[in-house]
Amino acid sequence: MTAELSRAPGTAEWAARVDFSLPVDRRAEVSATLDHILSVVGLLRELDFTDTVPATVFHAGGRDATV
Asked: Is residue 35 part of a domain?
């Protein structure tokens, strides 16, 4: 994947904003990785957690009510 096809075309600019030197030959790989991370985060945001019990209710090694 090239940086031009990326959903994160400003990878080099973002790197420069945080004082990180991003070599030209690494921009495509970093951009592809950023695209993957953004797609995973997007999928996680779409999940419906309204019926999910909070982690504080979970008891490791405990038994549940399923048969």
From this structure: yes
